[in-house]
Every structure is written in C-alpha cells, then in structure tokens.
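Fold this sequence, please.
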Amino acid sequence: MTTKVNLNIKIDPELKKQADLMLDDMGLTTSAAVNMFFRRIIATGQLPFTPQVNDQTRLAIQNVNNGVNLSQRFETVDELLEDLNS
C-alpha cells in the first residue's frame, strides 16, 4: 500500500462548507476532489480551468503598468531590494 501524506491548507470556513456540500452531492470527498485536481494538473501540465481576473485586480494591474498610485517604480528586483534595505 502506498503511504499517503497530509496536505494542510488555510481556507475560508464558509467556502469549505459550501464546497463540501456540493462535493457530497457528487459523491466525492474533499480529499478525492483535491486528488483529482492534482492528477489533472499533472496529466495536462496546466490548471483544469482558466483563471479569471476580477475588475479590482484588473484596475490594480493597470495602475501598476501606468505608474498610478506608486511611491516609486523599480526596473529590477535588485533596485527594489536596495531601496528596501536602505
């Protein structure tokens, strides 16, 4: 028999409750669903869904790209770290 490992994650309690109810209706446990999720990632090399960016995140990305609401812009990580450490 293959040894199993525990996976500990932080998740919103209400999100887990709702997901558990839906998974139960499908005849699945949370553990089985997570295993299916991981197997799909391994089989395809990608997420089994397309992540979506909400309007708030899209605006934040636009602001960063346009230099809006930034205290300073850095061209490299080294520049950022130098500023943080000074």
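The chain has a mean pLDDT of 92. Residues 30-44 form the longest helix (15 residues).
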